[in-house]
Write a structure and sequence with these properties.
- The structure is a single chain.
- The chain has two domains: 5-244, Jelly Rolls, CATH 2.60.120; 251-321, Phage tail protein beta-alpha-beta fold.
- 22% of the residues lie in helices and 35% in strands.
- It is built from six helices and 19 strands.
- The strands form three sheets. Strands 1, 2, 3, 4, 5, 6, 7, 8, 9, 10, 11, 12, 13 and 14 form a 14-stranded mixed beta sheet that branches.
- Residues 117-210 form the FecR protein domain.
- This is DUF4974 domain-containing protein.
């Protein structure tokens, strides 16, 4: 069976026959491209697509409350009004984020308990989910995941940066939600960056991944060594060497011709410091370098030497100047 955009559209909308669904899932799991897939033009309004995505994610499930992540799903907020009050008490009492689900049977009900991880600046963390998926979390990252995956999908929420090693499960797609995008896989390895002040960046190391803008129709299918950047409502696709985008998991800082303005936030998260640039002109200077398990003093020394600037360190305060 030939896999094309029309069939993929039916699959993500939950409209495939059992035979078509099996064929698509086998194609996704195989990871061998049959043809290039590019951006699709919207055929539905953003609100219609948004509704389809969330209905597909939760199937015939009524959502009373989801983790407090600033997703742009205004069309479902009215569902949470009553449950939100109850959830506040649950958060204060148990530090859990609760999702109330009702299955097809009226008598079948269960509560999904979400765990929130917040990685402080200067730290990194690794978590293994109950399905065997391993996730590395970068500094300054917030991550929500259920203690157990009970439904036919595995859903998590991300604000920050993480490297995912997703355990293969053809029956349960793995979905990562950020504020702006949804990443859907069956089993693969990829790095996802989804910070508030930064465009969403998906880099695939292994397998095949679907990348969709929240509330939008444009969808990309990415394979190994492909990267998509979602910014200003547009998705771009480029070829990259994926290895460099997970270097942070090995304690490596890599700056490939980044501006000092882009480098400063990374250093602040990595070393848990506050950096002040006394001359705004310096923010446009370009930085190239690779540092492995290096101290803050070493990194600043090399950057200052390369850019012919000065710096001072006092406790957790750093100043850069000419």
């Amino acid at each position: 069976m030939k896999i094309d955009h029309q069939l993929l559209d039916k699959y993500w909308a939950g409209q495939c026959t059992p035979t078509e669904r099996q064929a698509v899932e086998a194609w996704i799991a195989d990871g061998v491209p049959e043809e290039d897939f590019h951006l699709q033009s919207p055929t539905k309004s953003p609100e219609e697509i948004k509704s389809i995505l969330w209905q597909n994610i939760h199937k015939e499930t009524k959502i009373d409350h989801i983790p407090v992540l600033p997703t742009a799903v205004s069309s479902v907020r009215r569902w949470f009004t009553v449950a939100a009050t109850i959830a506040i008490f649950c958060l204060l009492s148990f530090f859990y984020l609760y999702v109330s689900r009702h299955a097809k049977s009226k008598n079948a009900a269960e509560t999904i308990s979400y765990v929130q991880i917040e990685v402080p600046f200067g730290k990194k963390q690794k978590v293994t989910l109950n399905d065997g998926t391993v996730i590395s979390l970068n500094s300054g990252t917030k991550f929500w995941y259920p203690r157990r995956f009970e439904s036919d999908q595995r859903e998590v929420f991300l604000e920050g940066e993480a490297f995912f090693e997703v355990s293969k499960d053809l029956a349960r797609p793995f979905v990562v939600h950020t504020k702006n995008t949804n990443t859907r896989v069956l089993g693969t390895r990829f790095n996802l960056l989804g910070r508030k002040e930064h465009p969403d960046v998906l880099t695939v190391e292994e397998g095949r991944v679907q990348f969709t803008a929240t509330g939008g129709a444009d969808t990309l299918i990415l394979e190994a060594n492909m990267q998509s950047i979602y910014t200003a409502g547009k998705m771009n696709l480029i070829k990259v060497r994926s290895e460099g985008y997970k270097a942070w998991t090995k304690g490596e800082l890599i700056f490939s011709n980044k501006t000092l303005k882009e480098v400063i936030p990374e250093l602040e998260r990595w070393y848990n410091v506050d950096i002040t640039c006394k001359d705004s002109e310096l923010l446009n200077y370009r930085v190239k370098g690779k540092f492995k398990q290096a101290s803050l003093a070493t990194v600043l020394h090399d950057i200052a030497f390369a850019l012919a600037i000065e710096y001072t360190i006092k406790d957790k305060e750093v100043s850069l100047y000419k």
